[in-house]
Amino acid sequence: MVRNAIKAAFLGLGFLLFACHPESKDMRQAAHEALENARIQLDSGNKSEAMQLFKDAEHYGLLADDTLTVARARFNIAKCLSVYADEKEFVSLLKAADEGFGNHYTERAKVMTVWGDYYQFHRQFDSAEVYLNRAMDYAERSGSMDAKRCVLSAFHVKCFNAGEYRKSGDYLQQYFQTYPPDASDSLLMYYYHNMGNVYYKMGNMDSMAYCYGRLEELVTQSETDCCEPNEDTWYYYGTLANFAEMRGDYETACEYIYQYEKGDTHYEIERRENNLALISHKYDSAVMQNELNAKIIRKQRVIVVISLVAVLVLAALLVSQIRLARRRKREAEINAELFHFKQQNKALAQKDAEHEQIQQDYADRLSEALDKEQQVMLLLDNYLNNDKRANLLSDLGKSVFGDKDHWEAMLEVVEQKYPDLWETLQKKYPDLDEDERKSYILSLFKVSRQEEADYLGTTVNMVDKLRGRRRKKMEEG
Asked: Structural domains in the chain?
């Protein structure tokens, strides 16, 4: 009954969630709108609002299973964080974006380029080169000339900042050669400006003067018909002012500085106006997104309410089942422990009985051997004054121990309990003499000092000395 109730509750919850869940196309549209509006805010200089919209795009993209949009959102979040981001977070975002782009090698090249720029900014030039090489590989696989130009430009900047000015110039020339022969004036100005900077760092003043001279000609020609500096030329007036100052032409340098500041102010005003116009133009798109977001939020609230009710019902059923299962499990564990305890007690009692029997057998055999030894000692006292005592001793030993020496007979009894004890003592403690080894063997049977003295045919004093020497040698060994 309980199982059927749980199953029915799960089925009902699944149906309600399916019915109230926002459609995938709504989520996909919300993700695309958030991504587009985030770019608008970023162009307007509102980085914090752009970051929030990029995160919304990532969220909706995950719900819609739109991996490409998620990858683009994460890539843009990383770019917003820029070179001042925490390295762990920055790398995590770019790695996820790179995986999400899959076979879109043009965008993967952009990811690797940004990754390389991050490391070169932090002057980790070896790491930067690794990622820029990957970017070049992706750019070539994509067949996109724009992607290749972007990577070559990044290589040029990396080598320039690393002090590898010759390589920096080589990459700049490769970048320039990717364009058709009839290059635009803006491209030529970019090329001569940067080549002039490279030659200046290399100390090649003639080549530097040539490049800056060509830049000055192009900028002057471009400004001939314009009353205001345009966006392609005003930036170069700063470099041309420095070049004029190097020539000693301070009047021209001042004029160029004035043009640079004037162009900078004009460009900032124009950028703000363009951004406002762009935001106004895209306002309808933002309103649509807000309405879509409100619709999704309403559906999600319904899902939350229904889910809470279903969870409460399921929780009540599951708690009762869990308690019952735990009680049965505990009873089974207690029964198993009790059975195991009984088996252990039974085995231990049997082992104790066997051990006591073995100890008793060894004690009996040792007592018998000691009794024989005592008989020998008593009989020896009777034969000591007899002229034929040597023969009598031999006869006595045979009568008590057979063909074996009394120590051999004793050792045979000992080795039944401690196999190979005599040989082990000889190998492990070679410094022990025979009496010391005998003393150690007798100590295993807890004989008294007097009994040991009687057995070895010596005094208690000598037994103490013998024991002391034996312990010392065994501790040193």
From this structure: 2-293 (1.25.40.10), 389-476 (no CATH)
